[in-house]
Amino acid sequence: MIYLKKIRILSFAGLMIFHLSLNAAPFESCPSKAFLMQQQVAKLYGVNLVTGNYSLLSDDLGTTGKINAIGFNFHDNYLYGWGYEWGTLVRIGSDYQATPITLLYNPGVNFYVGDIALNENSYYFYKKGASYGLYKVSLDVQSDDYMQVIKVIDGQALSLTIFDFAFHPTNNLLYTVDRDGQLYQINVTSGVATALANVGEQGTFGAVYFDIDGYLYISRNSDGYVFIIDVADSNPQATFFAYGPSASQNDGARCALAPIVDESVAATTDYGDAPDSYGTTLFSNGARHSVSDNYLGTSITTEHNAKVYPKTDEDDGIIFLTPLLAGSDSLIQVQVTGAGYLNIWADWDRDGQFTADEKLISDKYMADTTEVILVNTPLTALNGFTWTRARFTTVAAVVASGGVSDGEVEDYRVLVTNPGNSQIQDTPYYLAFEDSWPEQGDYDMNDVVILQNSSLLLTDTYAVKQIEFQGEVKALGASYHNGFAIQLDNILASNVDTSLVRFEINGVLQESSAIEEGTQYLVINITDDLRNHIQLSQDCLYYRTESNCSNSSLMTFSVTVPFITAIALEQFPQAPYNPFIFAQESTYHGELFFHPGRALEIHLKNKMPSSKADVSLFGLADDRTQVSGENTYQTSTGLPWALAINPGSQEEWQHPSEMVDILHAYPDFQKFIESNGNKATSWFAQSNAVNSKLY
Question: What SS3 class is residue 11?
Answer without folding.
Answer: helix
